[in-house]
Every structure is written in C-alpha cells, then in structure tokens.
Write a structure and sequence with these properties.
CATH class of the largest domain: Alpha Beta
Strand order of the largest sheet: 2-5-8-1-9
Radius of gyration: 20 Å
Pfam families: AAA_3, AAA_lid_2
Protein name: AAA family ATPase
Strand content: 5-15%
Shape: globular
GO molecular function: ATP binding; ATP hydrolysis activity
Domain AAA+ ATPase: 33-174
Family: Belongs to the MoxR family.
CATH superfamily of the largest domain: P-loop containing nucleotide triphosphate hydrolases
Distance between the termini: 26 Å
Largest sheet: 5 strands, parallel
Number of domains: 2
Length: 305
C-alpha cells in the first residue's frame, strides 16, 4: 500500500504540475532520500513551479536565489555587518538558511559563487567568520540549469554536480496537459490558494523511515556490479564513485517507501540509476555527458542475481 503522505502530496502536486507524474515522484524521492535535485531543461517548462509546489505542499520555509553573473557568495551565505551599538560584527544569515532552496539558473553564476553552495549541500552547515552554523532540517536544494549551449552559462564543475543526488528533465507537456495548462488558471494563483498537505515533521518521519528500509545482500551485489561496470566501460571517462553508490541506494529506499514497501527491489535501483548516473558520467575524449542509450545498454549488461 503506497505511503499515505506521499500519495497525498503527489496527488496535490499533479494538479499543479500537469502531465509530469513521474518527474514529480522522482523529485519527491530525492527529497525523502535527503539528497539534492538538479533540473536541467529549456526555460518555461515548469522547473521553478515544481520547486514552489514542493515547498508549498510540504510547508517548508522557502527561498529562491536567482543566480546571475554578478551574484556573490555572500549573497547566498550571508554577511557580517559592524554594529556600532555593540562595537562588534554581527552575522546576517543569507537565504541559504531556509529549508528548501531554489537555486534558479545556477549555471549563470560564476564558479566561485556556485561553490558557495558546496559546504551547505554536503555538510548541511555553513562556516562564517570562523564559526560553524547548522542549517535547518530538513534541508533541500533544487537547482535549475539551462542547457550549456545557451549564452551566458558556466558549466558546473564535477565536484558541484556530485552534490546532486538526482538529475531530471521535465520536457514539454503532452498535448492534453498543455491544453489544460493553456485553458486553466495561472499556476501562481493556484499555488497561493493551496494549503500544505503534509508538515515538515511528516517529511522528517518519511526520511527516517526510508533510511531504515531493508536492502538485501544480493541487491548490494547488484549495485556494486553497476558501479564496476561504469568504471570499466570503454566509452566512459571516469566511473561512478562510492558516494554515487550510496546515493543510488538512498534514492532506491525512498522510491520503495513511496511505493509502500519495507524493502528495496532491483526495479527500484533500475528506475533510479539513470537519474543518479547521468550527470556524473562523461564520455572519454570529448567530455560530453553519457547518452541515455549508453546508460541503458550498460544497465542491461549487468545481470540481476
């Protein structure tokens, strides 16, 4: 029986993001797995709306950061300002001290600014003026990225890409969904009228439950075989790291939880593998992302025992 919190959230979200049920479920799995989500697509297909929808329906404190070429790290983390009354510097937290962060068009900012998210995403804390400040829990970053061939973009470095558990693409809606979208009310107005369907405490319960789901030894063997296959594939420059393997298991646990199961099956791993691997793997020689067909062929070459 599907998880009732997940069912309520996905049903409500699918009324706002039309025709993208699978992508919504992938985004929710990433959130439940305590990962971070990278959405890459052309402008105008609903990337920002998806982030707003998740924040609204989960009741999470939300901040949107519009990345531009002149954005500075202090604009994200915060800045210390001298207080004349106390004759001391006082730290003013930046927008990163929220529960759900939308890093909009992250590849329009310079690498220095992009790196300001690194510690926050990995360690869930920020260091400022020699002090370590914890971030709220839950903490979830959704970053949108424009295609690299568009003007004014800075490719994300491998270290930054590896911080994202999943990468998804929304794509254009089908004809029926697009017609409903064109004839319906403004998405922003619908969002404002929507109350949360779960609480942050409910989400934390889901995250803890997902972490406790059983993964059998043969399934661990299967994940190891997939990782090894990426490392020995002649077309792939560098294979998946152990961190990617841990992320794949976390995402598979979350997918199983949403399905209402207390254990992970090979189909969970196979569903999540392309979304965990695609942004981490590049072709040997030219450095282009590995095509989806190559990932599918690689996955099919690894037997489930």
């Amino acid at each position: 029986m599907p998880n009732h919190h997940a069912t309520r959230l996905l049903e409500a979200a699918s009324q706002l993001i039309l025709g993208k049920e699978r992508e919504l479920r992938l985004a929710l799995a990433c959130l439940v797995a305590r990962g971070h989500l990278l959405i890459e697509d052309v402008p105008g297909v609903g990337k920002t709306t998806l982030a707003h929808t998740l924040a609204r329906l989960t009741g999470l404190q939300f901040q949107r950061i519009q990345f531009t070429s002149d954005l500075l790290p202090a604009d994200i983390v915060g800045v210390s300002i001298f207080d004349r009354e106390t004759s001391a510097f006082r730290f003013h937290p930046g927008p990163v001290f929220s529960q759900l962060i939308l890093a909009d068009e992250i590849n329009r900012a310079t690498p220095k600014t992009q790196s300001a998210l690194l510690e926050a995403m990995e360690e869930r804390q920020v260091t400022a003026d020699g002090s370590t400040l914890p971030l709220p829990d839950p903490f979830f970053v959704i970053a949108t990225q424009n295609p690299a061939n568009q003007i004014g973009t800075f490719p994300l470095p491998e270290s930054q890409l590896d911080r994202f558990l999943l990468r998804i693409r929304l794509g254009y809606p089908d004809a029926l969904a697009e017609r409903a979208l064109l004839m319906g009310a403004d998405r922003r107005e619908l969002l404002e009228a929507r109350p949360p369907v779960i609480t942050p405490a409910d989400l934390l319960d889901m995250q803890r439950a997902a972490q406790g789901l059983h993964v059998a030894d043969p399934l661990i063997d299967y994940v190891q075989a997939l990782l090894s296959a990426t490392r020995h594939h002649t077309e792939i420059e560098t294979g998946l790291s152990p961190r990617a393997g841990l992320g794949l298991l976390s995402a598979a646990r979350a997918w199983a939880l949403i399905d209402g199961r207390d254990h992970v099956v090979p189909e969970d791993v196979q569903t999540l593998f392309p979304h965990v691997a695609a942004h981490r793997l590049h072709l040997a020689g030219d450095g282009r992302p590995v095509p989806a067909a190559t990932l599918l062929s690689l996955m099919q070459s690894v037997p489930v025992r």
